[in-house]
Amino acid sequence: MASQEKTKLVLLACGSFNPITNMHLRMFELARDHLEDTGRYRVVKGIISPVGDSYKKKGLIEACHRLEMARLATENSDWITVNDWESQQSEWVETARVVRHHHAELISSENINDDVDTVRCGKRRKLEQNKNICQSSSYINTQADTPHLKLLCGADVLESFGVPNLWKSEDIEEIVGQYGVACITRCGSDAEKFINQSDVLYKHRKNIHVVREWVTNEISATHVRRALRRGQSVRYLLPDPVVRYIQDHSLYSSESEQKNADVILAPLQRYTSTN
Ligand SMILES: Nc1ncnc2c1ncn2[C@@H]1O[C@H](COP(=O)(O)OP(=O)(O)OP(=O)(O)O)[C@@H](O)[C@H]1O
Ligand SMILES: NC(=O)c1ccc[n+]([C@@H]2O[C@H](COP(=O)(O)O)[C@@H](O)[C@H]2O)c1
Ligand SMILES: [Zn+2]
Hints:
Oligomer: single chain
Largest sheet: 6 strands, parallel
CATH class: Alpha Beta
Number of helices: 13
CATH architecture: 3-Layer(aba) Sandwich
Distance between the termini: 49 Å
Helix content: 40-55%
CATH topology: Rossmann fold
Number of domains: 1
Bound molecules: adenosine-5'-triphosphate, beta-nicotinamide ribose monophosphate, zinc ion
Strand order of the largest sheet: 3-2-1-4-5-6
């Protein structure tokens, strides 16, 4: 397939990034290789979207630090970017909404780029129109010339779709059905088995790309925070500028690990109280 006929693809990773690790960055490289190897896609951009503080996960430090570390980690990448929209919202934002937001932004910027001569106020009107058009389900990931968006996650996040009161079923349907997922295998999770056992995931299995990480890599941010609390080295688990940032700002202590210790995670709080 000629390069111009391939579907342009943007990968969006949502998560705590508390802190960002080398494995978070590897996820993007692994997914890009896998998707481009299908011959159908050209991956043009990666977006890291750190979750906001109102997610209330235990040990979650302030978004400003997590964002800055993600920026430092990606400063040498020519395609992975960091976006603060999600973390700037006053309340925790469902991942389906984050995906929708970035898809709308993509379509808008594509159309604006195509239309450089449009006068300013016309441009703004066009942006609004585009947001409405591209949020209609018939438009999502169906236009060959505009970039498609897929959620990038580890197999543990895919498996978390089965946790009661954590995800709305319509959000799962929207993410896997209308956008698609690139899922990196992770020790302790069996993505293929989980897809097989879930009716909705099985229905959309062609839209879920399971990316096998052969160099099994068990780096987790939890492990990194634990090592830091114990004064152990985390070098080579994180990019050097991130290690320096953590040292300079004395991040990750026993005290910070207790943040939100007695608070219910935002999605559980939201969906349990409405059930
Ligand atoms: N080692 C890994 N292998 C595969 N996916 C990973 C790995 N580490 C993180 N991810 C994925 O990266 C995304 C962001 O994850 P997150 O910020 O929760 O990192 P984490 O290392 O799992 O942190 P924590 O231990 O705090 O949960 C998620 O989709 C998660 O599944
Ligand atoms: N219902 C939902 O949309 C939902 C539920 C749980 C987690 N999430 C997201 O998944 C990511 C998971 O991050 P952690 O693995 O760090 O908890 C976060 O970005 C979070 O916002 C979304
Ligand atoms: Zn995690």
